[in-house]
Specification:
Largest sheet: 9 strands, mixed
Number of domains: 2
Strand order of the largest sheet: 8-17-16-15-11-18-21-20-19
Number of strands: 21
Structural class: alpha/beta
Distance between the termini: 46 Å
Shape: globular
Strand content: 15-25%
Helix content: 25-40%
CATH class of the largest domain: Alpha Beta
Radius of gyration: 23 Å
Number of helices: 14
CATH topology of the largest domain: L-fuculose-1-phosphate Aldolase
Length: 492
């Protein structure tokens, strides 16, 4: 990954741990896998697990047995990734042996084809995956047959390898990144929640809501916008495990995927070069009001403003929005040298829904902060640039969905990045870090090519796409859904 922003700066800007691994080498060095087999394994699963362990050993990853990784209470030590091949009775499930719900990743491995087909629609695929995750109380699924093996993740991602056993490179480049960080919702202690403080009756909100509604209508017939998987319709082994799933999801009624967001206008101050820093700037760096970013071998001192974003609430149906209920405000304020997120829910009485922070909260805020930092550097090196002025007057839009655009759909002045990143799961610290680092890489690309910077297209391998920039949500939706735009307009 680019070192345009240091790990220390990421820690302060987004409260991402400085030890968070961003390269595959770092991921391998930190991985602590455990093999916890079911009482009886098929010959195929035994061979698969032997190949898995051999591949990991070749990468310098030590694999422990269940006994080695357990404490005196027989619970798995925090931070262990538990491979659980085979079919378990309730009393032997790996979830029963973790210390907390958020300290271990459990990978179920099965001697059967993946419950999907090439004809499965994305929503059907997601529902099948989430249903199996809840049934077996695991976080990642691996299905093994005589011809291939398949990884399925909570975000609906599916990767199939046409070999019966895992190779070293498949483990290194695909599986290891997916095991590096657990997908969890933001915890209450990680952000400030302001109930009922988002005013939905202002002219500014109504204009933004109108853009969301047009965007929602244009996406309404696109099967790649995964809308909702209800937790009520899932099959659970018992009420006990149903309660565990509810607790893990922070009592959400379901899972939705993708987001729409509108970053509110932000004051853009021009960055300074490091040689121009005086005592005042040194104080601002220490307080978190400025940060250092390297672009084209030049070190800039960049002001770090508060960023605010109107976005879709967790669990809503994004293809059928109710703006009074389904929009929330999130933001990032620098406090005591660290970025502190917040969530504002709609004004009291405007909704009967409980607004939860999105799993993607940190990624959305990373994009918003990256927009502000990019605009500040552009204002210094290319004062005539459109992006800083637009961000200061109108803000920017963000669209995330679980598919990839065709090259001809990319907006003019939007720069592509992320294709070579490790395929981490969404809603992880790595995803947020790659969003911010990639935006600076996109800025560098635009400057090297002497092209206008209007936004960026962040490709997330095995996951989806973020399109962020000066186009409105509706304008972006029209570009990405050209065959539906005319239909939708006729219905309005």
């Amino acid at each position: 990954m680019s070192n345009s922003i240091s790990s220390s700066a990421l820690h302060h800007l987004l409260s991402i741990s400085a030890s968070t691994p961003l390269s595959i080498e770092a991921m391998c060095s930190q991985l602590k896998p455990v093999i916890y087999p079911a009482p009886a394994l098929s010959a195929r699963l035994e061979q698969f697990c032997r190949a898995l362990v051999t591949a990991m050993h070749s990468l310098g990853i030590a694999v422990q047995s269940a006994e080695e990784a357990s404490g005196s209470d027989r619970r798995f030590a925090p931070g262990r990734v538990i491979f659980a091949p085979g079919y378990f009775p309730d009393n032997l499930l790996a979830i029963n042996r973790v210390s907390t719900l958020f300290n271990n990743i459990i990978v179920g491995i099965y001697d059967e084809p993946a419950p999907l087909s090439t004809d499965s629609l994305p929503q059907e695929r997601l529902d099948a995956i989430v249903g199996r995750l809840a049934r077996d109380m695991v976080h990642i699924l691996i299905f093994v047959t005589a011809q291939r093996w398949t990884i399925c993740t909570m975000n609906g991602g599916v990767v199939t390898f046409n070999t019966p056993y895992p190779s070293r490179e498949d483990i290194r480049c695909t599986l290891v990144p997916k095991l590096t960080a657990q997908v969890v919702p933001p915890r209450a202690e990680e952000l400030d929640i302001h109930e009922g403080e988002l005013q939905t009756d202002s002219l500014e909100f109504e204009a933004i809501a109108s853009d969301f509604m047009q965007c929602s209508a244009l996406w309404s017939r696109n099967c790649c916008l995964l809308t909702h998987t209800s937790t009520e319709g899932l099959e659970y082994r018992s009420d006990f495990y149903k309660r565990i799933v509810a607790r893990y999801l922070d009592q959400r009624s379901g899972m939705s995927y993708g987001f729409f967001a509108h970053q509110l206008p932000v004051e853009v101050q021009p960055a300074l070069l490091s040689g121009e820093a005086g005592p005042e700037e040194e104080k601002r760096i220490l307080s978190g009001e400025m940060t250092e970013i390297r672009v084209q071998e030049r070190l800039f001192l960049v002001p770090v403003p508060e960023v605010r974003v109107i976005t879709t609430r967790s669990g809503c149906r994004k293809n059928n929005l109710d703006p009074k209920k389904d929009l929330v405000e999130i933001g990032l304020i620098q406090k005591n040298g660290y970025g502190r997120p917040y969530l504002k829910t709609p004004a009291e009485g405007s909704t009967s829904n409980v607004a939860k922070p999105s799993f993607d909260t940190l990624t959305i805020l990373a994009h918003a902060l990256g927009n502000a930092l990019t605009a500040s550097i552009l204002k210094r090196v290319k004062p005539e640039s459109l992006f800083p002025e637009h961000l200061a007057r109108f803000g920017a839009s963000m669209t995330h969905w679980h598919d990839y655009p065709h090259a001809e759909q990319l907006p003019a002045g939007y720069h592509l990045h992320g294709e070579q990143n490790p395929p981490v799961s969404c809603s992880t610290p790595q995803s947020a870090a790659y969003s911010l680092l990639g935006k600076i890489a996109a800025l560098e690309k635009s400057l090297e090519m002497s092209e206008e910077y209007r936004g960026d297209v962040h490709i997330e391998p095995n996951h989806g796409t973020n399109i962020v920039g000066i186009l409105s949500l509706a304008e972006t939706a029209k570009l990405l859904n050209p065959e539906l735009s005319e239909f939708v307009l006729q219905q309005r």
